[in-house]
Amino acid sequence: MTTAYIGMGANLGDREAALRKAVAMLDACDDIRVAAVSDLVESAPLGPSGQPAYLNIAVCIETRLDAEALLQEMQAVESSMGRVRSEHWGPRTIDLDLLLFGDEIIDCDELTVPHAQMHLRSFVLRPMCQIAGDAMHPVLKRSMNELAARLNGGDFYLSNERPQLISVAGVIGVGKTTLARGLAEAFDCEMVAEAYDTNPYMAEVYAGRKDLALDSQLYFLHSRVRQLQQGALEAGRPVVTDYVFDKEMIYATRTLDAAQLSAYEQEHAAVADLVVRPVVVVYMKDSAASCLKRIGLRNRPYEKQIDLATLEGFAADYEQLFTGWRESPVIQVDVSGFNCMDWREVISLAEEVRQYIWTSPHV
Question: What is the mean pLDDT of residues 25-38?
């Protein structure tokens, strides 16, 4: 017997009744036994607008069938319940997807297991976490619970119609630029770095010139807008940055006085919608003390004024930012257990990141 997991969804007619019927039909098959069924989860459709909302469940089964034969049984259930395959991501009476089949990895014309985009969809992972939170994704080598946490309740899909922006985020000294360079090399793509070296105000601001803080912050704002604005990045192509644009408000709030912040917020609001949003964020985390040590080792004169309390404040702000983040999946990297100077570890992370960007047609 093989343990497998099936995702089911419906957004036409009596949705709950359709899901219950599909479960019963599978359970009636001689070589299939339904072992567990999740609660109902409602979600907005990913496809064309104007559709009704979906109800979704995850089902754990035990089966003597191989994956291809199980797929045929699932398709027979869909057909008997009036499933019509006329529109990609269109409305449907019932939809059955094979999510996991034991620990097998299958990639053929008829079937892809694990399901190619299950790790991007909270409406799949939330019910999976109810019945199998510790089950491992055979490709990503991560549990359903960890994969779900990366989405923070959001639902995403891969598309070649937008730039594949990979943003590396974290406090000063955590190793963002080093990792961004490594990921760019792994993906053979451009790396876009923060304009620290060209900012004419920053050294004086760190030295105590608070009157120049707004000029410095606006310099960063406009340089990042130029780097990330629509049209500057090519659709379908990966690009790595060593920052996430949303850090702007973290540093502005921490470094500007009330009058400066008000002026900055107006300028930020005028340009924020011009930038490309990331398809995935790599959020690097480490203790403020370790980051301060790295800052000391690289010995940049303008960073000598940074102290532990400052870094702890920035770290708290980053935690708050990503606690409510719904723009893209977030892959958290604990730097205490990851060496961004080790090419093997960078490659391993890059292969994980690859699952969150468009690189070829996906189901």
Answer: 97
Report the chain's mean pLDDT, rounded to a whole number: 94
Predicted local confidence at residue 363, as pLDDT: 38
CA dist 189 → 164, 184, 234, 239, 356 (Å): 10, 5, 11, 6, 16
Task: Convert 283-296 to b/e letters by CB count within 10 Å (16 or more is b).
Answer: bbbbbbeebbeebe
What band does 362 get if pLDDT is binned at 50, 70 and 90? very low
Residue 301: Cβ within 10 Å count: 9
Name the nearest CA neighbour of 58 among 121, 146, 12.
121
CATH superfamily of 164-354: P-loop containing nucleotide triphosphate hydrolases (3.40.50.300)
Q: Are strands 2-10 and 95-101 parallel, antiparallel or unpaired?
A: antiparallel
pLDDT in tens, 72-118: 999 999 999 987 765 566 688 999 999 999 999 999 988 999 999 99
Q: What does residue 343 show for φ and ψ, rounded to 5 degrees?
A: -60, -35
Contact present, 272 and 228 (Cβ < 8 Å): no
Q: What is the CATH number of domain 2-151?
A: 3.30.70.560
d(CA 215, CA 72): 64
Q: How far apart are CA 70 and CA 67, in angstroms?
A: 5
Looking at residue 82, what is its pLDDT?
86
Average pLDDT over residues 16-24: 97
Q: Which residues are bridge partners to 97 per DSSP?
A: 7
Indicate the domain borders of the chain: 2-151, 164-354
Residue 76 CA to its chain's centroid (Å)? 34
State the catalytic residues: 83, 92, 95, 97
